[in-house]
Amino acid sequence: MTASERRGVRNGEWSDPSETRAVDPESAVVVDGVRKRFGSGPEAVTAVDDVSFAIERGSVVGLLGPNGAGKTTLIKCILGMVLPDEGAVSIHGHDVSAEPRRAYAHVDAMLEGARNDYWRLTVRENLRYFATISGVDPDSVTARHDRLLDQLDLADKADEPVRKLSRGMKQKVSLASVLATESDVVFLDEPTLGLDVESSLTLRRELRRIVEARDLTVVLSSHDMDVIEDVCDRVIIMSEGRVVADDTVSNLLHRSGTGTYRVTSPDLDREVIDALEARFDVTDVERRDGRTHVEVRVDSDGFYRLVDTLRENRVTIDGVTSVARDLESVFVELTDRTNGTERGGSR
Ligand SMILES: Nc1ncnc2c1ncn2[C@@H]1O[C@H](COP(=O)(O)OP(=O)(O)OP(=O)(O)O)[C@@H](O)[C@H]1O
């Protein structure tokens, strides 16, 4: 280990690791006040802005955010591929600046949906290769590799060179290569990118099964909300470099306060719809069977203001139902809000 490796970086200055805050060795990953700026002067971009969180061992955490939110930069800071300007990262209790070898000993990653698999080697040879370079005797994990190939529907391709496989299969080989090692913490960036629906479903199901069987910690970034909703225990949503939500999938879906309501009425004319649009976030208007159905997204006290507005306009209400939320609508709501485009009935 070099002298600089023995030192931690905090608040933009090199410091003695003994000065760094004690981290919970029980956490798989601890990110503490990480900040990263690119460039300088008016052109500077703060890609990651004071981000902190801890990830429990054996959990699957989704990292979400619109393009440019800072997800990749944050993952690269955690993996030591980008040096943060401020803050500290530790993995399994080891500060990545002070003890990089120990911190990264059990970490693997698949970035941007791919990994440098060896296309001339067969699928099984790739798995053995990556197990070997991670310090595992490949003969001792043959049974586990067979199981992995089975789980990912790759068993009948095990002895084919990777170059002969379809794009989706290559992607599964990438994931299998990550899981073939003895890593305890894996970072998967867009693992289902380009997969067909069936392969994506298989991969999600098997990933979840593998996580439970091995007590694996996974940090998964994806633009596909269904993947996140299916696989993750918890979701961290970033927008403009900051964390705007950090909660379990179920809490995010059932957050009290905000919601979308569907109002059905025989006399919702254009004038009333204009009045609703002026005060609320009207997400859908549909005329069917002589009635009008309007979907309105509101915040915590917005529901009562919505009902009051309908009454003021003497609207006959046939029904008001709550529309089930999915992670996508929660995501849009949270990231719209931080981008200053919130409507949600607060006008
Ligand atoms: N090497 C770099 N030099 C300058 N700016 C950068 C660099 N890397 C990232 N950025 C900027 O930092 C911000 C965050 O980018 P980042 O790639 O981390 O976002 P992201 O959430 O991963 O986006 P995406 O979903 O599009 O991959 C963006 O404004 C980006 O342009």
From TrEMBL:
Provenance organism: Salinigranum rubrum
Matches recorded under InterPro entries: AAA+_ATPase, ABC_transporter-like_ATP-bd, ABC_transporter_ATP-binding, P-loop_NTPase
Listed GO MF terms: ATP binding; ATP hydrolysis activity
Ranges where the record places region Disordered: 1-26
Protein name: ABC transporter ATP-binding protein
Domain of life assignment: Archaea
Biased composition (Basic and acidic residues): 1-10
Residues covered by the ABC transporter domain: 29-265
Keywords: ATP-binding, Nucleotide-binding, Transport
Similarity comment: family membership: Belongs to the ABC transporter superfamily.
Xref: Pfam families: ABC_tran
